[in-house]
Amino acid sequence: MEFKHISVLLKETVDSLHIRPDGTYVDCTAGAGGHSGAILERLNENGRLICIDQDPDAVAVLRERFGTDARVQVVHSNFARLDAVLLSLDLAKADGILADLGVSSHQLDTAQRGFSFHNDAPLDMRMSQEGISAADLVNTLPQEALAEIIFKYGEEKFARSIARNIVAMREKKRIETTLELAELVKQSIPAKARRQGGHPARRTFQALRIEVNGELEKLEQALDLMFDALAVNGRLSVITFHSLEDRIVKQKMRLWAQGCTCPPDFPVCVCGKTPRAKILKAVTPSTEELEENPRSRSAHLRCAEKIKDA
User: CA angle 223-89-39, nearest 5°?
Assistant: First the structure.
């Protein structure tokens, strides 16, 4: 199986992990193995790499690519279950953990996966290929619930109009395909607004994808699991692609790096809190990378180094 994906911020991400040749590293969203492969190049025969992905297509490709390498273990799971994965592998701590939160090029470009508004396909959007699909949501959720999802996760100011028109359409016929939904969204947005900020359906599709896959809830849970799984001096590197997930990552890292929270007029600290992490400078794609891969334009790399266990 071919699983195409251009790894974003490849060198910068692998550099941020400060790879030890004999260390243990976890790629929580291994995809086609771009970042994993670059990590593996820096490991010696004593190094260890765990590749995790929830997409069965990605897992098949990872096993084909790394299956004969004794240093690599490929696991079909979601990063929100990282603690269970590491326990099953008898792994206590890792020296570095990576999560690339973007949708893969394979998922976007494979029409039948239903992520893209550029090709007509079943309205799916399930990264794991299991559970409730985007079509299930748009055809069953109440109007107010749809509007809330589109506004909250898509930051779409015309969410109410879009939700109202979805409900009106599905009363006539079930909404089955990506282009049906994309055209409906387009017609729900004023003509002037359609010409701004890219494709008019982009924000609605993002919102539905986030809801279908429970992305933000799983991210909140997974970040704490990732940080807890780090050894002292280990690093967590996370690539985000939109403001909602980037805000969650930034806030989590600030919380880990926070020290004393006593009121400033206290003569001495009584809370006993000390920083558990050091935050490294955030990185965005270079001009050269943006030219080679326009899909990297919204990427942010954030990295935190663990300096103290709980």
Answer: 65
CATH number assigned to the domain covering 10-100+215-306 = 3.40.50.150
Q: Could you give the C-alpha distances from 18 to 32, 43, 96, 231, in angstroms and in order? A: 22, 11, 8, 13
Listed in sequence order, the residues at least 6 apart from 167 whose beta carbon sits closer than 8 Å to its beta carbon are 143, 146
Distance of alpha carbon 21 from alpha carbon 155, whole angstroms? 43
Query: What's this model's pTM, rounded to 2 decimal places?
Result: 0.91
Residues of the chain with confidence (pLDDT) below 70: 1-5, 105-106, 109
Tell me the C-alpha to C-alpha distance, in Å, between residue 156 and each of 51, 149, 200.
35, 9, 10
| 301 and 239 Cβ atoms separated by less than 8 Å | yes
Domain with CATH 1.10.150.170 in the chain: 117-213
What is the per-residue pLDDT for 271?
83
Topology of the domain covering 117-213: DNA polymerase; domain 1 (1.10.150)
How far apart CA 16 and CA 38 sit, in angstroms, is 12
Rounded-to-integer distance, Cα 294 and Cα 64, Å: 28
